[in-house]
């Protein structure tokens, strides 16, 4: 059986995996989720958060060879963790996530995409070091196909997102040695699905999966997402 570590995206926390974790554990896998620094129950001031701090939090949470799943912006932290400790990671799984390229930041990749659907909902802090999501627009950009209960649950828990980790380029030296898979969400209103395909156009077909889902399949289709993760766990 596999070890899974699930990493949330911008403004979220470990809480977003509430419907996926029990499904993974019920099949005998060991699945956990953590709050990145300044998210969820972590009390790190948002102004102190860096990409390296994210990466080190992930590495510290690894217990034996682990399949590390990163949602959305977490594509960068999980890759940075693989730079620090590739020997501890069995596979990286990018769930509708940004896939780092050498010398590029997440902001750089976002600007490369053909559309910027999330930006209409972004509200920057007065100091310019973090942003939040306009509560009125969060359901449309993140959760448009999710149950009403889940939308309310998430809306009560969204937190500020540090900008510095997303503006930090990432060198890639050790991470490319780690096997990787990608899950495209075809109804995503945050990261355009066509850009998700661009990021994976040269990947082996067997390492790319697709769901007709929003940016939050952990709420809209947790069973389907878990099934794909089961398939990924069986990859060599």
Automatic annotation (TrEMBL):
UniProt cross-references to InterPro entries, sorted A to Z: AB_hydrolase_1, AB_hydrolase_fold, MES/HNL
SUPFAM superfamilies found in the cross-reference section: alpha/beta-Hydrolases
One GO MF term attached to the UniProt entry: methyl jasmonate esterase activity
Coiled-coil intervals: none
Record-annotated AB hydrolase-1 domain positions: 4-227
Name recorded for this polypeptide: Pimeloyl-ACP methyl ester carboxylesterase
Native organism: Tranquillimonas alkanivorans
């Amino acid at each position: 059986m596999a070890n899974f570590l699930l990493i949330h995206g911008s403004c979220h926390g470990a809480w977003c995996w509430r419907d996926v974790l029990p499904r993974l554990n019920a099949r005998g896998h060991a699945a956990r989720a953590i709050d990145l620094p300044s998210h969820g129950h972590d009390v790190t001031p948002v102004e102190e958060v860096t990409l390296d701090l994210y990466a080190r939090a992930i590495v510290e949470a690894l217990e034996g060879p682990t399949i590390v799943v990163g949602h959305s912006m977490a594509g960068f932290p999980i890759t940075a963790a693989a730079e620090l400790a590739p020997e501890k990671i069995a596979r990286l799984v990018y769930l509708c996530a940004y896939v780092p390229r050498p010398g590029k930041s997440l902001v750089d990749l976002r600007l490369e995409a053909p559309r910027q659907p999330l930006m209409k909902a972004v509200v920057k802090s007065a100091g310019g070091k973090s942003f939040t999501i306009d509560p009125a627009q969060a359901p449309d950009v993140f959760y448009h196909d999710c149950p009403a209960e889940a939308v309310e649950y998430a809306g009560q828990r969204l937190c500020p997102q540090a900008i510095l980790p997303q503006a930090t380029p990432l060198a890639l030296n050790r991470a490319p040695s780690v096997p990787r898979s990608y899950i495209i969400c075809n109804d995503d209103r945050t990261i355009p699905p066509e850009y998700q395909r661009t990021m994976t156009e040269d990947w082996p077909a067997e390492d790319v999966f697709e769901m007709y889902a929003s940016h939050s399949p952990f709420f809209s289709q947790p069973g389907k997402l878990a099934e794909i993760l089961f398939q990924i766990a069986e990859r060599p």
